[in-house]
Amino acid sequence: MVNSSNKSKQTRRKFTATDLVYKELKDQILTLKLSPGTLLEEDRILGKLGFSRTPFREACMRLKEEGWLLSISRRGYLISPIMFEDMSDIYSLRLILESASVQIVASRASEKDIQLLEEMVRFEEDELGSGQSLKKSLVELSYKFHMRFAELAGNTRIVNIMQSAMEHCERFDSMLSRYDSQAPWVRHSKIVLAIKNRDPIEASKRMQEHIQQARSRILNAFSGHALELSLPVQDFRMQVPLSPLHNHGRKGQSAVFPRRPRSR
């Protein structure tokens, strides 16, 4: 397990005021409590959080370094807009990483690992019930699913990259839930079944299908169409080189949530 020791260290670690402000601000950004493209209202947030300006500004610097905030001269910070191109790029990245890593998981996962994944599938089915409405518990579960897949692959760098990618996807899903709370949910059960059957190639196929469906759901909701994206399934255990993705031409950036004009 990649993160068992890391988690225990995090549990023992004493969080600073900056850590707490950072966590709260980041959570509000990912869940869209802080709207993309709007100015961060320092005084209002400080009044709610009850911290001084120093940890707040230190937390903002960390969030700026991670790309969640943009610095505006003499104005403070802007919540980073959600760019249409970023959505496509994040899912393209996931397609490459997870198609490879899930093959490793299908080969290495222990019975206990598989049992845990099956428990998560049962929870997902319970949450869905008779419908497939998009809700916070499912968004959080999706994050846990894909981080678990990354952890089981046993590569710390993949885990770190996937954490960033899945945080962006959490933000996308939060946006989609506001736009269309009845958007169809993309299940994880077929991926888990392929892992249980110890079939790396099938697991990779199912992961690609899953990411494609999740990507199309987002892009279709906000553009009316989605670009086709495909990646040949290969056996990464044998170190077969990855075929390059087609580079779709782009003519600039399109913000899904553009900055609102300042009222006069």
Helices and strands, with pairings:
Elements: H1 4-12, H2 17-30, H3 42-49, H4 53-65, E1 69-72, E2 76-79, H5 84-108, H6 111-128, H7 136-152, H8 156-179, H9 189-196, H10 200-223
Antiparallel strand pairs: 1-2
Helix pairs in contact: 2-4, 5-7, 5-8, 5-10, 6-7, 6-9, 7-8, 9-10
3D architecture notes:
The chain has 264 residues and is mostly helical. The chain has two domains: 16-79, Orthogonal Bundle (Arc Repressor Mutant, subunit A), CATH 1.10.10; 84-238, GntR ligand-binding domain-like (Four Helix Bundle (Hemerythrin (Met), subunit A), Up-down Bundle). Helix content is 61%, strand content 3%. The protein has helices at residues 4-12, 17-30, 42-49, 53-65, 84-108, 111-128, 136-152, 156-179, 189-196, 200-223, and strands at 69-72, 76-79. It has a two-stranded antiparallel sheet with strand order 1-2. A hairpin with a 3-residue loop joins β1 (69-72) and β2. α5 packs antiparallel against α10 (200-223). The longest helix is centred in the middle third of the chain and has 25 residues, at 84-108. It is globular, with a radius of gyration of 20 Å. It starts with a helix and ends in a 41-residue tail after the last helix. The model is unreliable at 7-11, 224-231, 236-252 and 258-264 (pLDDT under 50).
